[in-house]
Specification:
By secondary structure, the chain is of the alpha+beta class. The chain has helices at 6-35, 68-92, 97-119, 144-168, and strands spanning 41-43, 48-55, 125-134, 137-138. The protein has one domain. Helix content is 60%, strand content 13%. It has a four-stranded antiparallel β-sheet with strand order 1-2-3-4. Helix 2 (68-92) runs antiparallel to helix 3 and helix 3 (97-119) runs antiparallel to helix 4 (144-168). The chain is globular and about 65 Å long.
Length: 173
Amino acid sequence: MKTMSRSYRLTVVLSILISVFAIDQVTKNWAVETLRARAPHVYLNGFFQFVYAENPGAFLGLGDSWSREIRFIVFALVVLIGLGGMLWYLFTREKSRTNLFAYSLILAGGFGNLWDRVANDHGHVIDFMLIDIWGPLRTGVFNVADMAIVGGVLLALYTEVSSKKKLSNPPAV
């Protein structure tokens, strides 16, 4: 396996970080200007909706009833430390190009939501998309940063599963 140079890693991480962060912030600003205090924009018979939400918690509102101070410690300081650890790992330990992309997506999404928590007076994250699959089967309200995190996690899981398959099924000689 060919090693990745530090400049390659930096280029990949910064490209993904800047791109995802910019798209995330532009779409969140659009949501504030277009959706706040208005009825949802519904498409495909309600399957996809643009609906404004301010999420003080994490995934599906986890921690939304905690005090602002506890939320700041958990969702800002702990996340910042985790993102810093991930950045360190990407530059010193990661060997897989696919995982470099996967973890860069997670890092970018985490940074986008962290920015919201620190920049907004109430420490909330702006969410604005919802997929209503059928009846009670629907997503929580999410944003572009959340999509990057989920995409990065899925890509990392795919890499893990496919590398295990290669180890368990060596090519015939």
